[in-house]
Design brief:
Length: 656
C-alpha cells in the first residue's frame, strides 16, 4: 500500500498536522481491521465492510443452523429407530421360545413337575418382556408413547399393567415435515386392546357456553365458521352475519341478533327478529314477527348448513340438532337431552380386585371419569372417539374387567355395564358365544317346591331374549321363577318365589352348554332362593402378556389332559399371532429406519454444501490477507518515518 503524500506548498502548519494525523488514523485502522480478519478468519468483521456478502452470509448461516438442527433430529431418530428395531427382535425371540415351550407340551406325556418347570420358564419370559418393554434410548422410553419418562409396564398381582399412552413421538426431519419414530406398547404388545365400550348415547344438550369445536354440526362434519345471509320480506331486510370470530353457540346467537339489530330490526321475543337456542336445546331457532325468512350461504361457504339454519321463504327456522359432543366439562344435568340423571354407585371388578365407586354428586362428565380412573383398579375411563359415550379401558393384561351395578341402575344408565340386556349372545365368553340346541330345551330350572321349568333359547340373540325366554317358560309352567339382571355386580339373576325344601338349581339338558355359557349353571346351596350368574362378558386385554399368562395357567392347572392340551394350544395360537405381528411391525420400523438413513445421507450432503457456500462468502483468503497486512504495516511505518521530517520536529528546528 502506497504512503499518502502530503503537499506542504502554501499549506498552514495546522493543515499539515491534520493531514498527517488523518493518514496515521486511516493506516492504523486498516492495520487493526486486517489483524481482526486474520484473527477471526472472516473476510469482514461487520456488515458495513461488505453489505452484499454480509447479507449472503447471514442468510446462509440461518439456513445452515436449521439444517444442522434437522441433521441432529434425524440422527436421533435414526438411532431411536435402530434401538426399537433391536428391541422388537428380542420380543420376537422371546415369543419364539414361548411358542416352542407350548408346542413341546402338547401331545406329550410330560408329568406335573415337567410342566411346572416349563411354567417357570414362561414366567421368566414374561419378566424379560417387561424389561424389553421398559427399555429406553437416551432416557426416552421406547414403547411408552408420549409418556416418555416413566417405565410403561409394571407387574401387578393380577398381571402386567401398561401406564403408557398411544401417543406418537415425532421428529422434525424437514421443513414442515414431522415423521413418527416410535411404536407404543399398545401396538407391539397389544396393551389397551380391550375396553367396556359405552352403548348409550348420553346426548348432551347445547348451552350458550358450548364451544363450536365441541359440536358435530348438522352435517356431522363440524362447524365451519364463515358468513351467512339472512333475508326477511316483512319488513324487507337483508343482512350478512359474520361468524368467523364465533367461539361458542352463545356467540353465534349474539352475532346473529346483533347483525339484525344493526339492520334496523327490533330484536327480542315478540319483536321483528329473535335468534335463540331452541326449546329442545339441540339447535338454534330463529323466530320472526311476520312474513318469511331465508338463510343462505355467502359465496362458497357452508356455515349455514353446519349450523342447521338453511331456510328458504320459511315462517321461521327450527335449527337442526347440532349433535353436541361430550367433553370433560359437560354437565350431568345436560345429559339425556337435558333431562339429566340421578347418579348412584357402580361396581367394578378387575382381576381379583373389586371396588364400589360412588358417582353421586358428580356434576360433570370429567368428575365421573376422574372417580372411575382414580379408583385404583388400573382402569381408565375416557370419552369415546365419537364423543357420544364413556369407555372404560382395562390397563392390565391378564385380568378380566367387569362393570356392574351397586344396588341401582347407574352403570346401565351411563352405558358402561359390561353385560347388559342388549349384549349379543355371540359376544359372550370372549366371542365364543352360547351353545344353543335347536328345537330342544337347553336347560331346566328346578324350584324349591320341586317344580321344573324347561327353557329353550331357540331364536335368542341377546341377553334380553334370554331373560324373556326364561320368564315366558316359567309363566307358561306356572312356576314363580323370575329372571333379570343382577342389581349388585353383574350376571343373570334368577329368583325362586316358591316355598319348599328342595334346592333351587339350574341344570343343562340335551348336552347343551347354554347354562354354562350364560354363567347360570349353579345351585342355591345357601337356600336364599336366588342364583346370581357370572358375568360372562368380561373384558380381557388381547395382548402378548395375556397369552403368556394363559400358557402359564394351562401348564400349572390340574385339568384333564385333553382340556389342558386345548388350553395350551389356544395360548400357542395367540402367541403365534403376536409373533407374526412382531415381524410385521419390525418390517414397518425397518422401512422407517431405511427412509431415515437415506434422509440422513441427503441432509449431511446438504449441510456440507451449505458450509462450502458459506465458506466462499465469509471465510478469509489468508494469502491475500497477509499480503494486505504487510502492505498496511509498511504504509504505517512510512507515515511514522516521514512525519518528523515533514513537521520539522527535531531539536535544531525548534531552536531555529
Amino acid at each position: 500500500m502506497a504512503v499518502t503524500s502530503i503537499n506542504i506548498t502554501r499549506v498552514s502548519n495546522n493543515l499539515q498536522t491534520m493531514s498527517l494525523l488523518e493518514s496515521l488514523r486511516r493506516n492504523t485502522l486498516n492495520l487493526f481491521l486486517e489483524k481482526n480478519r486474520i484473527a477471526s478468519g472472516n473476510r469482514f468483521t461487520s456488515p458495513s465492510e461488505d453489505p452484499v456478502n454480509a447479507g449472503k452470509a447471514v442468510s446462509l448461516t440461518e439456513i445452515l443452523e436449521r439444517q444442522e438442527q434437522i441433521l441432529a433430529n434425524i440422527r436421533h431418530a435414526d438411532s431411536f429407530l435402530a434401538a426399537t428395531d433391536s428391541s422388537i427382535g428380542e420380543v420376537n425371540d422371546l415369543l419364539t421360545q414361548a411358542y416352542s415351550i407350548a408346542s413341546e407340551m402338547v401331545n406329550t406325556t410330560a408329568d406335573d413337575s415337567q410342566r411346572t418347570s416349563m411354567a417357570e420358564l414362561v414366567q421368566g419370559i414374561i419378566d424379560q418382556l417387561v424389561t424389553v418393554g421398559n427399555r429406553t434410548y437416551q432416557g426416552v422410553q421406547l414403547f411408552g408413547g408420549q409418556r416418555t419418562t416413566a417405565p410403561p409396564f409394571t407387574q401387578t398381582t393380577g398381571g402386567v399393567e401398561y401406564v403408557g399412552d398411544t401417543g406418537a413421538l415425532t421428529a422434525h426431519v424437514d421443513h414442515g415435515l414431522n415423521q413418527t419414530i416410535n411404536l407404543t406398547g399398545a401396538e407391539l404388545f397389544g396393551a389397551l386392546s380391550s375396553r367396556v365400550s359405552g352403548f348409550v348415547d348420553l346426548n348432551p344438550v347445547i348451552t350458550d357456553d358450548t364451544r363450536l369445536v365441541d359440536v358435530s354440526g348438522a352435517a356431522n362434519v363440524g362447524v365451519a365458521r364463515g358468513l351467512i345471509r339472512i333475508t326477511l320480506d316483512s319488513p324487507a331486510t337483508s343482512f350478512v352475519v359474520d361468524l368467523t370470530q364465533a367461539d361458542t353457540v352463545g356467540d353465534v346467537v349474539d352475532y346473529i341478533n346483533g347483525a339484525a339489530a344493526a339492520a334496523g330490526l327490533t330484536v327480542g321475543v315478540g319483536g321483528d327478529f329473535d335468534a335463540a337456542i331452541g326449546a329442545t336445546r339441540t339447535g338454534i331457532d330463529i323466530s320472526i314477527g311476520a312474513g318469511t325468512i331465508s338463510v343462505a350461504e355467502v359465496g362458497q361457504g357452508v356455515t349455514a348448513r353446519d349450523l342447521g339454519l338453511r331456510a328458504t321463504n320459511a315462517p321461521g327456522v327450527n335449527g337442526v340438532d347440532l349433535n353436541a359432543r361430550l367433553t370433560t366439562s359437560t354437565t350431568v344435568a345436560s345429559l339425556f337431552g337435558g333431562a339429566g340423571g340421578s347418579l348412584g354407585a357402580i361396581q367394578i371388578a378387575n382381576g381379583n380386585t373389586i371396588a364400589t365407586i360412588d358417582l353421586s354428586g358428580a356434576a360433570t362428565v370429567g368428575e365421573i371419569l376422574n372417580r372411575i380412573t382414580g379408583s385404583h383398579l388400573n382402569v381408565e375411563a375416557q370419552i369415546n372417539a365419537a364423543g357420544m359415550g364413556i369407555d372404560i379401558v382395562n390397563r392390565v393384561s391378564g385380568a378380566r374387567l367387569s362393570v356392574g351395578e351397586a344396588g341401582g341402575n347407574t352403570a346401565e344408565m351411563l352405558g358402561i355395564r359390561s353385560m347388559h340386556g342388549g349384549t349379543a349372545l355371540s359376544a359372550l365368553n370372549d366371542g365364543a358365544g352360547v351353545g344353543i340346541k335347536t328345537g330342544q330345551p337347553d336347560f331346566r330350572i328346578a324350584a324349591r317346591d320341586g317344580s321344573i321349568v324347561q327353557v329353550s333359547l331357540d331364536g335368542a340373540r341377546t341377553i334380553d331374549d334370554v331373560l324373556a325366554a326364561i320368564n315366558t317358560a316359567a309363566s307358561t309352567a306356572g312356576v314363580n321363577v323370575t329372571a333379570s339382571l343382577a342389581t349388585t355386580g353383574n350376571g343373570i339373576r334368577l329368583v325362586d318365589g316358591t316355598v319348599g325344601s328342595g334346592t333351587f338349581r339350574v341344570e343343562p339338558m340335551n348336552a347343551s352348554t347354554a347354562a354354562t355359557d350364560l354363567g347360570i349353571y349353579q345351585s342355591d346351596t345357601a337356600g336364599t332362593g336366588e342364583i346370581v350368574g357370572d358375568d360372562v362378558n368380561t373384558v380381557r386385554t388381547d395382548s402378548v402378556f395375556t397369552a403368556l399368562f394363559d400358557l402359564f395357567d394351562a401348564l400349572t392347572a390340574t385339568n384333564p389332559s385333553h382340556i389342558q392340551e386345548q388350553q395350551i394350544t389356544q395360548a400357542a395360537e395367540t402367541i403365534r399371532r403376536f409373533m407374526d405381528q412382531a415381524i410385521q411391525l419390525q418390517g414397518t420400523v425397518g422401512a422407517r429406519s431405511k427412509a431415515m438413513s437415506t434422509r440422513l445421507d441427503m441432509t449431511e450432503s446438504a449441510v456440507t454444501a451449505s458450509r462450502a457456500l458459506l465458506s466462499e462468502v465469509k471465510d478469509l483468503d489468508y494469502t491475500e490477507a497477509v499480503t494486505k497486512f504487510q502492505q498496511t504495516q509498511t504504509a504505517l511505518q512510512g507515515n511514522l518515518m516521514t512525519a518528523p521530517m515533514l513537521l520539522q520536529l527535531s531539536l535544531l528546528n525548534f531552536l531555529r
